[in-house]
Specification:
Strand content: 15-25%
Oligomer: single chain
CATH topology of the largest domain: Beta-Lactamase
CATH class of the largest domain: Alpha Beta
Number of domains: 2
Number of strands: 3
Number of helices: 6
Helix content: 55-70%
Largest sheet: 3 strands, antiparallel
Distance between the termini: 21 Å
Radius of gyration: 28 Å
Structural class: alpha+beta
Length: 161
């Protein structure tokens, strides 16, 4: 319900104008959505913020269409969704991806480079068994980089929308 997230009572809410809960910095986007509504008969979905009773803003997603009541009077039927939780989860996902990308990719690149240098003979001739182990480790580290990239791409495909 639209009233609950605003923290107004039902009576207070019914006395509010649209601009009492919509920040003025959304005037341009609101005009674009009204223009779209006039041209197509629907608008959205689009994101913006509403203002709570305490002045705090919270994110919402809106969409709607023109409908007619039984007498033929046109009205706007809107769906408003509080997307606070969706935004919180999206931020967590982005932080996770950034952390995984930095905390795994950076050391993996260093390890792979060091193993490549050792396998290439920078430290001189290695015993055969050591050289085989270094070569296998280097090959495996090179295979991990694309796997990590694919994993990060996969995570982004399931981004909360």
């Amino acid at each position: 319900m639209l009233v609950a997230p605003t923290e107004y009572t039902r009576e207070e809410f019914l006395r509010l104008s649209y601009w009492d809960i919509t920040p003025k910095d959304y005037e341009k986007e609101e005009a674009e959505q009204l223009n779209l509504l006039e041209k197509t008969g629907h608008y959205g979905p689009y994101e913006k913020e509403y203002i709570r009773n305490n002045g705090e803003r919270y994110p919402v997603e809106l969409s709607g269409m023109i409908i007619k009541d039984r007498s033929g009077k046109q009205m706007i039927w809107s769906i408003v969704e509080d997307i606070t939780e969706r935004k919180r989860i999206d931020r967590m996902k982005n932080e996770f991806v950034s952390t995984v990308s930095h905390e795994l990719r950076t050391p993996l690149t260093s390890i792979s480079s060091a193993l490549g240098l050792i396998a290439g003979g920078v430290l001189g001739e290695l015993p055969e068994k050591v050289n085989e182990m270094v070569s296998v480790a280097h090959k495996n580290s090179l295979m991990l980089t694309p796997s990590l990239t694919i994993f990060l791409i996969w995570i982004n495909c399931f981004r909360v929308k």
